[in-house]
Amino acid sequence: MSEKLDKIVEELSTLSVLDAAELVKKLEEKWGVSAAAPVAVAAAAGAAAAAEPVEEKTEFDVVIKDAGAKKIDVIKVIRQLTNLGLGEAKTMAETAGSKVLAGVGKDAANEAKKKLEEAGANVVLE
To answer: What is the pLDDT of residue 36?
Structure first.
């Protein structure tokens, strides 16, 4: 294989499954072809072993499981993330299972989780 093709293969190896599927669609549109026929034969052979792809979750809830030892720091972060008052943020920090943020994107949820964990809280994304 030429160096140019090696580079393309290396670049394609970094794609996620969703990105690879999108690439297939774009190439089919650009070239006016369908990859379905060759894929159908291969898919029929492996259909029994392959599971349906799971749709990637796009909205997350940031939930506090435990405020930890630094409750004051956690309350401060909750107030920054939600604009709640001191009393409401304190109640949220003290109540296990409280949703700090609901229905936010993956990046925002991960950022909020990171800030809360740095403050000492035990946090999960649902």
So the answer is: 58
